[in-house]
Write a structure and sequence with these properties.
Distance between the termini: 26 Å
Radius of gyration: 19 Å
Strand content: 5-15%
Number of helices: 13
Largest sheet: 5 strands, parallel
Number of strands: 7
Helix content: 40-55%
Order of helices and strands: EHHEHEHHHHHHHEHEHEEH
Oligomer: single chain
Shape: globular
Strand order of the largest sheet: 4-3-2-1-7
């Protein structure tokens, strides 16, 4: 079926490697292996979707989280290949409120020997007894089953973060680890996100800049409707002020949403919204499928380097 390919992190040009990140060379090789002629320009994919004229196999490129590494590494590749993409922007960093989720990812990617070492340190910070009690009787292998690129350890961490710990508990645990390490997160934050000028250049260059919530909650559907609405309204207002027009496309943070989320987006004039997996959903234009690039790479099986 017609769908998007989903990308997040890239390494090179001062951006460190992280779990699942791609180099410029790996990104270009992947696009070539998929088939450059299969990717529609973002504006054309949008118009074709709205008109009900998408064909099986029509692909679009999508990027989540407003990451500066996307502008520094992926965008030059797109320009060289004559491609455009959707960029879904969580706006808190644009308002001077760094996304702690991304800061924490940088921490675990750069201050540990590997992600497994981070997971062990995280569980120690939470407390071994609390972790084991929370996971007792849980079939962790079925958690996030729609995202096969997650390892068992990834699922265990995300279950603890999103289903066991409160937001305050998770933040406290991570902040304790960062304080003990001595990482200067203020300095780190300056290089993680795109700024308003970059987003305007993308918009003028034929890319589609869309909504991705304000603060990037990992479990949007767990929030009361009023808070969900505030996430999307703030996101829309900030991006409209930057771009000079209100975006009418969106992607759900972490692919999580509910019927309340759909109603809110519809009420804000959003016409297309993307999931973060290939489940069919309801067939609504607000539940469009995407395949994570890690799944695409595994399916290609051509030894493409990252």
């Amino acid at each position: 079926m017609a769908h998007g390919l989903l990308f997040h992190h890239f390494h090179g040009k001062g951006h460190p490697p992280s779990q699942g990140s791609l180099s410029a060379e790996g990104f270009a090789a992947m696009l070539d292996a998929v088939g450059l002629d299969r990717f529609l320009p973002a504006q054309a994919w949008r118009e074709r979707a709205l008109a009900g004229r998408l064909r099986p196999g029509d692909l679009c490129l999508t990027f989540d989280d407003n990451l500066r590494c996307q502008a520094d590494i992926a965008v030059p590749v797109l320009e060289r290949l004559g491609l455009t993409a959707f960029f879904f922007v969580n706006s808190a960093p644009l308002a001077g409120q760094p996304d702690r989720l991304e800061l924490y990812r940088h921490f675990r990617s750069t201050r540990f020997a590997g992600v497994e070492a981070f997971y062990a340190a995280f569980e120690a910070a939470v407390g071994a007894e609390r972790v084991e009690a929370a996971l007792d009787g849980v079939d962790i292998d079925t958690y996030l089953a729609a995202k096969p690129f997650y390892s068992r350890a990834d699922r265990r961490f995300r279950y603890l973060r999103d289903r066991v710990l409160s937001e305050d508990d998770y933040t406290a645990a991570m902040d304790r680890m960062i304080a003990a390490d001595g990482l200067d997160i203020t300095a780190v934050a300056t290089g993680l996100w795109m700024d308003a000028d970059t987003l305007r250049r993308l918009d003028r260059g034929g890319h589609v800049v869309g909504l991705h919530s304000h603060g990037h909650p990992t479990c949007l559907s767990a929030l009361p409707g009023e808070r969900q609405a505030a996430e999307w309204r703030t996101n829309r207002e900030l991006l409209a002020g930057i771009l000079g027009h209100a975006p009418d496309t969106a992607a759900f943070p972490c692919g999580d949403y509910d019927t309340v989320s759909l109603d809110i987006l519809g009420g804000l004039g959003v016409r297309l919204a993307f999931r973060a997996d290939m489940a069919a959903g309801s067939g609504s234009l607000l539940e469009l499928p995407r395949e994570n690039h890690s799944v695409t790479l595994a399916r290609l099986g051509k030894g493409l380097h990252g």
